[in-house]
């Protein structure tokens, strides 16, 4: 960062401190800035800077002799009161001005709270910037969790961490209450809480060794779960919780403010049961570490070394040498892609804010012209320019103050609406109108007040005032200068609105494209019923298989149900797992990465229920006939998968090794049309395995009904409860809903950006309308003369509209340049449309000019109705 | 007991006194020591730190010290004075009384 920036920053500090310590402070700022390497850390630096600045200013100011500051303050308060009274007398000016500011400030404050709470605020753990997520990867895009073998290896060999932990997430069935309920659980190492640097408010954390096989089952619960299960504020320590049919002793309760790094949110934490595994996989543990301040090796070297040794040790069950350990700041993995979307939305809303302030500045300029005579008289009577400046500043402060206060209120309302709409944003529980939001509104308010005061101040130059006195009767102090300023502001608004429109247009096109994607299944009239079996009673595959078969039959008997299937994993974005495999015909070389695909479980009913379209070969046989199946391990693949791995030939009959298993092979028996399991925007490569190959304890029953109804949902729940009363009532959703949920976040950002674009274009249209209306009033006499000389009405209309369009076109040209630069940040959010899509650009420009045309036409029509005789005689 | 040494001091003054109690340090060094000793909870901004240092110099709690020859000459070193040590002792005593009262009420156990 250049020296100049720090010098400017330094110049804001109180002169007294600056004079004494200037050189040292520059050094201090630079040292601290350079320690921050990531963008979010650097953004946070400037936020902290503003807090520090205000603290230093206050400390110095409050120390000064009160008499030095009291006198001007009191007189300024008088000015404020006067401004407020003036505004009340002019509601036609005050209402739109205050409303525009409130909307601009309110929407930007609302988005700011998201940016601050989610992206900028440090995670609520001890020294959170040190924490890293440890993962495996064999390419920048293929990043996946650790296995038990990896984690134990790191724990054993590492030389660079102060603390290490791992966790995974699962749903458990909590019994013991009136009804069993499904609760999110963090399954963690004993070191989990110590690594984060947080402790339970009651009881203790986990002790070392409690995460090894054979340790007594213990659990730590959230304050919310304690209140709900044991009673508000009850003493839960030592009590027993029945989880998946097993008894766990409660040893600790977390504070209500604790948000762990596990998503979605969990209500209890219990230790993993680690034991030396037979092979390298499966990969399900998320590692976190706190690098030591002075370790004997750098984290990079240490992880590289551990990767090498882990590979050698487990080469039998994992032949891919390119899989290595990596680290990312924990903050980045939690905030992820949402940070990008929030930052873009914040940029967009700042544009709206600038447009809003520009618009109000325009109104203020118009008012100043009307008050030109008053100012000129005041100046002639001896008011100094400083005095006039203070009057204008008071106007600005009152407008911005009221606008800011209302804006804060609006932001609060918008935020609670946003929360109710419930987009799945990370850390949403940490977002709210807090001190930072108030500080943001204060800073924006001060800037707005300064802008509102400075623009008309230009009109109080000595020459302008003298002119004003000369033209006094017509109240046109500095009118040509004002007109230039106002025209320039409107053109600027057009320039800023175009990127908003183009961005909104691109996102809308992307969303439409996503909605048009063929998901590969028929979502109408299909219900998804996720069911999780408790552990006790379903320890072996036999008992689970029995339950699932009975459940299928039971649901099929419900009136209105047409077909039932059993699926592990559901489209459009939840395959059962990502699995590696190797083609028997063309195996990869030893040490090379095996290909990876989404794998998902389905039985013969799934094809009928979801309406999958078979292209070649056959689908899985009837479950009950599995003993008579022709191949042991059949697989069905999608068309894109087949085309990628067997281009130009049939995939049917080909064999592959699945998941590192070299003992037996699986055989492809059929090819279906692409089904989306990696999101609607993702590819359609999927491998189906028959559900009975792996009887999982959590699966989904998919049910095709003739007409969705609550009666059927109730019957489904009753049938499942009848089979086993310990199963919690499932959350039944329709496949339509799942499809819609899968693009909920794209929809949210698109709606927000479109809303901001619409607000901005409306404001800009009003701004142009105001400027042209004023110009028409000023030129009444000229128009009258033109008409008297033979100009007809259409000619007058054309003249005014042409002026409006010229202003708009100038702004649009500048806006195009801005758009080319701005849409770059959208690239990752677009689907099926280029960021420089000519159609979108043209539509946005045309829309902008159409609004300009309309905004210009209204004053133009009024101009054309000028009565030449009256205009000339009174003008 | 001098008057400057027996008045409660602001928290930033206390952090600076604490940082200088065992060694002379320059501004960046004071900031780092405070950050390290407080587990990263307290981060002094440049304005807060130097406004505090300014007042502390005026009140005689700290003084400018000799800088080690090898260090950057732009960095001035500060040392704690006897008055400063007195203030540190007094404030530590005052805080421990307050903390004791809090613990008696079962807070922060």
Description of the molecule:
The complex is a heterodimer of chains A (875) and B (109). Chain A has 875 residues and is of the alpha+beta class. Helix content of chain A is 53%, strand content 16%. Chain A contains 25 helices and 24 strands. In chain A, the strands form 2 sheets. In chain A, strands 1, 2, 3, 4, 5, 6, 7, 8, 9, 10, 11 and 12 form a 12-stranded mixed sheet that branches. In chain A, strands 16-17-22-19-21-20 form a 6-stranded mixed β-barrel. In chain A, strand 4 and strand 5 form a beta hairpin. The longest helix of chain A has 41 residues, at 330-370. Chain B is mainly alpha-helical and 109 residues long. Helix content of chain B is 53%, strand content 9%. Chain B has 4 helices and 3 strands. Chain B has helices at residues 11-20, 27-37, 46-59, 82-104, and strands at 25-26, 62-65, 77-80. A 3-stranded antiparallel sheet of chain B has the order 1-3-2. In chain B, helix 1 (11-20) packs across helix 2. The radius of gyration of chain B is 15 Å and the shape is globular. At the A-B interface, helix 2 and helix 3 of A face helix 2 and helix 3 of B.
Structural topology:
The complex is a heterodimer of chains A (875) and B (109).
Chain A: H1 3-11, H2 15-34, H3 39-63, H4 66-89, H5 91-120, E1 132-137, E2 143-144, E3 146-147, H6 148-157, E4 161-174, E5 181-188, H7 192-196, E6 202-203, E7 218-221, H8 223-230, E8 240-243, E9 246-253, E10 268-271, E11 283-291, H9 299-314, E12 324-329, H10 330-370, H11 372-380, H12 385-421, H13 435-457, H14 462-470, H15 479-516, E13 526-532, H16 541-556, E14 561-570, E15 574-575, E16 577-583, E17 596-602, H17 604-610, E18 614-617, E19 634-638, H18 639-645, E20 655-658, E21 666-672, E22 687-690, E23 698-705, H19 710-723, E24 733-734, H20 735-742, H21 744-778, H22 780-788, H23 793-822, H24 838-864, H25 868-874
Parallel strand pairs in A: 5-10, 7-9, 17-22, 19-21
Antiparallel strand pairs in A: 1-2, 1-11, 1-12, 3-11, 4-5, 4-11, 6-9, 7-10, 8-9, 13-23, 13-24, 14-15, 14-17, 14-23, 16-17, 16-20, 18-21, 19-22, 20-21
Helix pairs in contact in A: 1-2, 4-12, 5-10, 5-12, 5-13, 6-9, 10-13, 10-15, 10-21, 11-14, 12-13, 15-21, 15-23, 15-24, 16-19, 21-24, 22-25, 23-24
Chain B: H1 11-20, E1 25-26, H2 27-37, H3 46-59, E2 62-65, E3 77-80, H4 82-104
